[in-house]
Each structure stands twice: as structure tokens, then as C-alpha cells.
Amino acid sequence: MKVVVLSGAGVSAESGLKTFRDEDGLWEGHDVMEVATPQGFQENPELVFEFYNQRRRLLKTAEPNDAHRLIAELETDFDVHVVTQNVDDLHERAGSTNVLHLHGELFKVRPVNDPHTIIDWRDDLNSGDKDEQGNQLRPHVVWFGEAVPAMTEAVQIVKHADILIIVGTSLQVYPAAGLKDYVSPVTSIYLVDPNPGISESKNLHIFAENASSGMQKIKHILLNS
Q1: Is 103 assigned a catalytic role?
Q2: pLDDT (tens digit, 9 = 90+) per residue, 102-118?
Q3: What DSSP letter does each residue of 161-206 carry, written as one string?
Q4: Under a CB-based contact definition with an 8 Å cutoff, are residues 83 and 102 in contact?
Q5: List 103, 116, 140, 220, catalytic entry
Q6: Which domain CATH number covers 48?
Q7: Which of 200, 205, 199 has its CA nearest to residue 218?
Q8: Which of 96, 172, 188, 215 could form a disulfide with 72 if both were Cys (CB 3.0 to 4.6 A apart)?
Q9: Residue 73 and residue 53 share a domain
Q10: What percent of the chain clears pLDDT 70, i.e. is strictly above it?
Q11: What is the domain-level CATH number for residue 184?
């Protein structure tokens, strides 16, 4: 049975990593347009570098939580694919082996002129850090206004899901939010969200709680169904 997990910032929040942005639209006190757009990078690269350097430092000290571990444990009994909006590596550290990052990864960088050359990078990134050809490096993160290259692969993964688990995401950020629309009509969908904002239907099962407790219940259901 193929289980696809679509995860968002709410999963990593239990590991101390804040969700993408607060209700006031700010991300760690910054307007997202300043730190998460190509225009913001062009206007103030130093601010953008330091913003992601701080995120990278925090990620080094964070640990996977129960939600990450429960998702990874499903691989013992199912063919599990994780499609995540998160840029951290906590799914991998918890043991998940099939993880697709829609929005990039904090511990990777790429040249400003080449989106296909991805370089592992765990330390601070600053102006003057260049690739072997002398091109400035930037965070390997998909910013607002940029294409999401992994979407094509994500759609194919979701299309073949027998079970879709949506956890830690409010499904407000597109195009990722549209992935649920690609599942088969007979696919069972499990949604874990403290404030789901939608009602259950025939194939949609809602757990209005945090990621860890919701995943514990879903794991029990899947193993006993």
C-alpha cells in the first residue's frame, strides 16, 4: 500500500522551528517580501543571507519529534513517500528514506545563475561565497514568485497514493495546496490540523490536534485496518 505524507511547518514546530509566518504575515519579525523573494535578495542580500544563516543555526540544534518518527516508522509496513513543504532535514534524520522537498533545503545552496547545481552547505552563507566558476551562491530555497521544480514529481507521487496524510499544513500556500486534488476519488485522506476549517466527508478523516498526537492515531488506524 502506498502512503503519501504531505507535511508542512506544523510538523517541525514541535521541534522548536517556528511555522512559516505568523498571523501578522511576518516571518521571524521580517516581512516575507524582504527575505523570501528574488526582489528582496536583490535589494538587500546581506539581510537575506543572515536570515537564512539564523535558520540554519537553529536547525543544527533541533531534533526530530514524535511526528517525524511516527511518519518514518510507517515505512516498516507501507511504501511511504513524504512530500514536504519544509526546508529542514528532520524527516530524514527521523529515518524517512523517500523525502521530496517542494521548497528547497536549508542545508543546500546553489549558484544564483544555475538552479540545477545543488551544493551541500551547513555553515553560514555570505556575499563572496562562490562556486568553482566564480558565481555567487544563494540559499537553495524556493522564494515567492519562483517556480517549484519538484511539483511535477510531487503530482505523480500523489496520483498513485492509496492513503494521503496531510499533516502540519493549512494548505494555504500554492501550488503545494493543490496537490490533494490529484488523488484518486477512492483514496482515503487523513488531515491533521488543530484548526482544520473543513468538515469530514466520505474519504476525508480529520484529526483536529497537533501533528504528533494525530500521527499516533493514524498509525494505529493504518496498522489495524
Answers
A1: yes
A2: 999 999 999 999 999 99
A3: -SEEEEES--S-STTGGGGGGGS-TT-EEEEE-SS--S---SSEEE
A4: yes
A5: 103
A6: 3.30.1600.10
A7: 205
A8: 96
A9: no
A10: 93
A11: 3.40.50.1220
